[in-house]
Amino acid sequence: MSKIHVMDHPLIQHKVALIRDKNTGSKDFRELVEEIAMLMAYEVTRDFPLKEVEIETPVATAKVKMIDGKNVAIVPILRAGLGMVNGMLNLVPAAKVGHIGLYRDPDSLKPVDYYCKLPVDIEEREAIIVDPMLATGGSANEAIAILKRHHAKNIKLVCLIGAPEGIKAVSEAHPDVDVFVAAVDEKLNEHCYIVPGLGDAGDRLFGTK
Ligand code: PRP
Ligand code: URA
After folding, report:
1. What averages of pLDDT result for each successive group of 10 residues across the chain (209 residues)?
2. Is the CB of 80 under 6 A from ligand 1?
3. Angle at CA 51, nearest 5°, toward 47 and 52?
4. Phi, psi (deg, nearest 5) at residue 50
5. How many CB atoms lie within 10 A of CB 89?
6. Which residue's CA is minimally distant from atom 2 of ligand 2?
């Protein structure tokens, strides 16, 4: 089964509370999503391998450990995942960015695939999928399947809010993928929106409603 990491650090909880508020406008929403993604990157990168390098301090030669950021690909699910990219890049600036375009069909609620552009060496990179919302899990499962078809082996999923249904769906379909969320909500409503959630993440980020 997937390992589920619920990142309930007080700073993250505070910022998640602010993005849930319907009175938070797009500018603040965008800034907060980026900040939460940056705070989550701290934990998501905890198991990153380090390489030993030699540097000169003003006093002596020192063997130090550094992250090999060239081994990372951040993969937002369009559109809303875009809001999390810069926060992650702040901590892993050498990462490459791939894009997967999916939207949820309003009637079937199944993901519709419309775009995919990944780093050419994706199979050698740790792929970190970012998307604020994990509702039914259909979009996340499809993004993971696309990455696996491109031979990505090491995949993590990072979402801000997860519904129990979506977490279960990903964990069953892709038990090798660790899932990181900032909050686990109560349920999905009849339109498969997360309750209490934050509404439509893409619309709130980009002001399209
Ligand atoms: C939202 C969200 C996820 C998906 C989650 O995207 O950003 O990608 O829904 O729902 P699921 O877990 O039931 O698949 P949406 O389909 O609204 O597309 P958008 O970001 O382009 O608005
Ligand atoms: N997509 C969203 O943006 N919000 C939800 O609550 C569910 C899917």
Report:
1. 93 98 98 98 92 96 86 96 98 94 91 97 96 98 98 96 98 98 98 97 95
2. yes
3. 135
4. -105, 150
5. 20
6. 200
How many other CB atoms are found less than 10 A from the CB of residue 57? 8
Ligand nearest to the CA of 193: 2
* The three-state (H, E, C) secondary structure of 50-101, written as one string: EEEEEEECCCCEEEEEEECHHHEEEEEEECCCHHHHHHHHHHCCCCEECEEE
Q: Is 19 in the pocket of ligand 2 (CB under 6 A)?
A: no
- Tell me, what amino acid is at 30? R
Q: In this structure, what token pair is assigned to residue 181?
A: 């969320």
Q: State pTM to two decimals.
A: 0.95
Whose CA is closest to 203, among 102, 83, 85?
83
